[in-house]
Design goal:
The protein is an alpha/beta fold. It has one domain: TIM Barrel (Alpha-Beta Barrel). The strands form three sheets. It has an eight-stranded parallel β-sheet. Strands 1-12 form a two-stranded antiparallel ribbon. A two-stranded antiparallel sheet has the order 2-3. Helix 5 runs parallel beside helix 16 and helix 13 crosses helix 14. It binds flavin mononucleotide. Flavin mononucleotide (FMN) binds next to helix 2 and helix 16.
């Protein structure tokens, strides 16, 4: 196994091993990609305060997210088409997460189905739900998640309409990939990937094909989104979904304090401060910059989580010290999966865990549950002073 010291090492191998279409799908943001870039670069505007000669023995990164034990507060975010990055990718990632003791979230737009994950894991996972027009499909999705013993549902609220990612349009992204001369030429150079794909039957949207009616071309993410997603979604509709699911509920995609209060009012157990990894509203603030205002608005009444831009344990540490109770990684584990399958996801988690643990220690802290802003040096005006 190559020596992997950081998430970027995994990304380099991932880029070599996975067809360009799927690498591009992961490694892009919408339009100019400003928000995609700033999600990560804004973390480096925050500095960590080094402390010395503090007892650093007996440290712990264990915590809870929505009341469930986690070995570190870093869950795997829902990522569509994960099973195209590596054969049976969602199963591989879920197994790595389970062994590591962190939650795995399955996307509605996954290749492996809810039932596939339930059959191939032994601990409950979380189910991400996109809000579709078709009520029967929605009810059935929640029922399937319940039958699979999912321990939380996560409703994503920032994708009523799809942000444009230029490269997906140019590449003709689909699952399974459409065979054009360019895509075939590229795939022929990805031998391991191709052999894996030939060896699995899971190459379609597993939660959708055979479960949803009236979608002309379920292979195309953009066609499916345009036809099936509900652009009229509002908080009343989310209240209806709340009634379809009586377990723990997480609302994903909150960037404004007013929306955070609405999420609280519909009875969510947690919210995720997220801009979908910079894939939806280009020009939105980075998630880490949006966090303080949301903490001020609802932080004492609901669990606040954060994703978008996390590439290291230091990033996790900063989000936690700013008040987030949990974090998620998306791309960071996809790099690992595409690079080395399940072992690569495990390696991504190990890298982040070590960075979190050692950085916490060097800030003079021993317990991830007792972090606060004192370990951070946040520049004046970090969260922005915006005109009303
Ligand atoms: C390739 C890709 C596919 C994604 N698919 C979904 C999805 O199906 N559902 C969802 O709620 N979020 C989806 N997201 C957003 C992630 O859940 C998460 O918010 C984002 O990846 C966090 O940013 P990061 O990648 O910088 O960690 C996707 C992100 C990526 C990169």
């Amino acid at each position: 196994m190559p020596v992997i010291t950081c998430i970027d090492d995994l990304k380099r191998i991932y880029r070599r091993r996975v067809p360009k279409m799927f690498y591009d799908y992961t490694e892009s943001g919408s339009w100019t990609e400003q928000t995609f870039r700033e999600n990560s670069s804004d973390f480096s505007d925050i500095y960590l305060r080094q402390r010395v000669a503090v007892d650093m023995a007996g440290r712990s990164t264990a915590s809870t997210m929505i009341g469930q034990d986690v070995s570190m507060p870093v869950a795997l975010a829902p990522v569509g088409l994960t099973g195209m990055q590596h054969a049976d990718g969602e199963i591989k990632a879920a197994r790595a997460a389970e062994a590591f003791g962190v939650p795995f979230t399955l996307s509605t737009m996954s290749i492996c189905s809810i039932e596939d994950i339930a059959e191939n894991t032994s601990k409950p996972f979380w189910m991400q739900v996109y809000t579709l027009k078709d009520d029967d499909f929605m009810q059935r999705l929640f029922d399937r998640a319940r039958e699979a013993k999912c321990s939380a549902a996560m409703i994503t609220v920032d994708l009523q309409v799809l942000g444009q990612r230029h490269r997906d349009l140019k590449n003709g992204l689909s699952a399974p990939p459409k065979l054009t001369p360019a895509s075939v030429a590229n795939m022929m150079t990805k031998v391991q990937w191709g052999l894996g794909m030939l060896g699995t039957k899971r190459r379609f949207f597993g939660n959708i094909v055979g479960h949803a009616k009236g979608v002309a071309d379920p292979s195309s993410l953009s066609t499916w989104t345009a036809e099936a997603f509900d652009p009229s979604l509002d908080w009343n509709r989310i209240r209806e979904f709340r009634k379809m699911w009586d377990g723990p509920l997480i609302i994903k995609g909150i960037m404004d304090a007013r929306d955070a209060r609405e999420a609280l009012n519909v009875g969510a157990d947690a919210i995720i401060v997220s801009n979908h990894g910079g894939r939806q509203l280009d020009g939105a603030l980075s998630a880490i910059r949006a966090l303080p205002a949301i903490m001020d608005a609802v932080g004492d009444r609901i669990e606040v989580h954060l994703d978008s831009g996390i590439r290291s344990g230091q990033d996790v540490l900063k989000a936690l010290a700013m008040g987030a109770k949990g974090t998620y990684v998306g791309r960071a584990y996809i790099y690992g999966l595409g690079a080395m399958g399940q072992a690569g996801v495990t390696r991504a988690l190990e890298v982040i865990h070590k960075e979190l643990d050692v950085s916490m220690a060097l800030c003079g802290r021993r317990d991830v549950r007792d972090l606060d802003r004192d370990i951070l040096m946040i520049p004046e005006g970090f969260e922005g002073r915006w005109q009303a």
